[in-house]
């Protein structure tokens, strides 16, 4: 039978930790002749938890068999806890072995410690030890194979995000080029806004490509990057301020959030910044920047707001400015997230909030 894909091409590294010399010698005699899936065992011995730590500082092992009582009554337990918490040793099969099983019940040990097996010394014959070691080594090989496959899937997904980003950038550039040759101002504006919407989606894929966790978007970073990109196109001299709480989301949430932010910034650039070229109405003090962008968690909801120092909505009861495609898209996207759009036209200008339920994001 061929070896598992995760099996090593060299001997299997196995660590035996025990302060009893006779136990170490007998374990070596039992395990030395073994071959698992065609490969022998490379046995390393440590006579204390401290000696084991020195070995583990420079090596990784497929399996470690650790005695409970060594320098102290719980030296082995402490060592196993340390190894279980160390990412570098996450695939190592940990075995606790004790000559005092009665004082350390198996049920409690298995529950309280991340171990693969528990061996009372007097209960295991040489053949049982060899069988259990073989099973642990094959389990280690399987874990390695699964991790390698997960890494490969991750690389493929990142490559997909990278290619989607590049393709969307091409589409956005084509729309910008077409806008430069549009026959009318309305057509030119429509092409520019369409290109920016495409770029909004591209930036999500760019962040996922560079992110550490697949499928998890750093929403604060995304909002900042997108806002700077949009305003660089629409109003490069505009002053922006940010108050962004750290929030994570999935791509399913980030895309509509980004599209909504794009619409709000486009609207602000079209109406508020244009109006700001003339004096503000009496009583308007401004907001300390041309546009203020905030992201926060409020109770069980996420809130994205864009505030500008423009003329606001106009007289009470007037229709919101920008009642065309952009505003329709804004309300439709908010509904997609089971959220809502709120407006407040006050002394500092217009504030538009998008509020949607916070959803749990996979780690």
Describe this structure as you would to a colleague.
The protein has 363 residues and is α/β, with parallel strands linked by helices. It folds into two domains: 136 residues, 3-Layer(aba) Sandwich (Rossmann fold); 124 residues, 2-Layer Sandwich (Heat Shock Protein 90), CATH 3.30.565.10. The strands form three sheets. It has a six-stranded mixed β-sheet with strand order 2-3-1-4-5-6, with helices on both faces. Strands 8-10-11-13-12 form a five-stranded mixed β-sheet, with helices on one face. Strands 7-9 form a two-stranded antiparallel ribbon. A hairpin with a 2-residue loop joins β10 and β11. The longest helix has 55 residues. About 5% of the residues have low confidence.
Number of β-strand runs:
13
- Number of structural domains: 2
- Second-tier CATH architecture of the largest domain: 3-Layer(aba) Sandwich
Biggest sheet: strand arrangement: 2-3-1-4-5-6
- The poorly predicted ranges are 275-287, 316-320
Q: What oligomeric state do these chains adopt?
A: single chain
Measure the end-to-end span.
38 Å
Total number of helices: 9
Calculate Rg over CA atoms.
31 Å
Question: What is the CATH T-level topology of the largest domain?
Answer: Rossmann fold
Regarding CATH, which class of the largest domain? Alpha Beta
* Topology pattern, helix = H, strand = E: EHEEHEHEHEHHEHEEHEEHEE
The 3D shape can be described as: elongated
Secondary structure topology:
Layout: E1 12-17, H1 21-31, E2 35-36, E3 39-46, H2 49-56, E4 63-67, H3 75-85, E5 93-98, H4 106-112, E6 117-120, H5 126-180, H6 185-210, E7 217-218, H7 219-234, E8 240-244, E9 248-249, H8 251-275, E10 291-298, E11 301-308, H9 325-336, E12 340-346, E13 349-357
Parallel strand pairs: 1-3, 1-4, 4-5, 5-6, 8-10
Antiparallel strand pairs: 2-3, 7-9, 10-11, 11-13, 12-13
Helix pairs in contact: 5-6, 6-7, 6-8, 7-8, 8-9
